[in-house]
Design goal:
- The chain is 47% helix and 3% strand.
- Helix 6 packs across helix 7.
- The chain starts with 12 loop residues before the first helix and ends in a 9-residue tail after the last helix.
- A two-stranded antiparallel sheet has the order 1-2.
- It is mainly alpha-helical and 157 residues long.
- The chain has helices at residues 13-16, 23-26, 40-48, 62-71, 80-89, 100-110, 120-134, 138-148, and strands at 78-79, 117-118.
Length: 157
């Protein structure tokens, strides 16, 4: 099959994210449990960067999730403006590698089309996108985000 002529399906959260399944489908072993599954957007980014899933240096996402919600102003989602503030507070910008334009582009890459905000799962994908653009491990991005939110850096526990 000629890969250049095959249509690639878009990511659809309510279909592809098995954690959103309810009722019989949520308990159906053919659909999987959704635990420890990586967002398809993250897998695509890792493939594009020639990084194997096992090689992605991840830390515990629990403290990062708390930090994420601390940057969401009044709701459970993050807008691009809040993401840019988070990047500045967490010192994620690297001159010539990851600047505000890159942060905006990464945000727009992970958000659903037509929406202006991202949820927690999309934020995880955004952390991977930022790490790949910065050419640093995602664990560094995670640690900086937790530290910016006032938590203990993940590497110092």
């Amino acid at each position: 099959v000629d890969k250049g002529r095959v249509t690639q399906a878009e990511y659809v959260r309510f279909h592809d994210d098995k954690r959103t399944y309810t009722g019989v489908h949520g308990a159906n072993e053919n659909h999987g449990t959704g635990e420890n599954e990586i967002d398809p957007r993250v897998l695509e980014m890792l493939r594009a960067a020639h990084v194997k899933q096992e090689e992605a240096e991840e830390l515990d996402w629990g403290p990062v999730e708390k930090a994420f919600y601390s940057f969401c102003q009044g709701d459970m989602c993050l807008c691009c403006k809040e993401w840019l503030v988070l990047c500045a507070d967490a010192r994620l910008y690297i001159l010539g590698k990851f600047e505000s334009a890159d942060a905006t582009a990464a945000f727009n890459k992970v958000k659903n089309s037509g929406e202006k905000r991202i949820d927690w799962e999309q934020f995880r994908a955004l952390c991977f996108a930022a790490a790949l653009k910065r050419e640093r491990p995602v664990s560094e991005v995670q640690s900086r985000i937790v530290e910016a939110a006032g938590g203990t850096p993940l590497g110092q526990r």
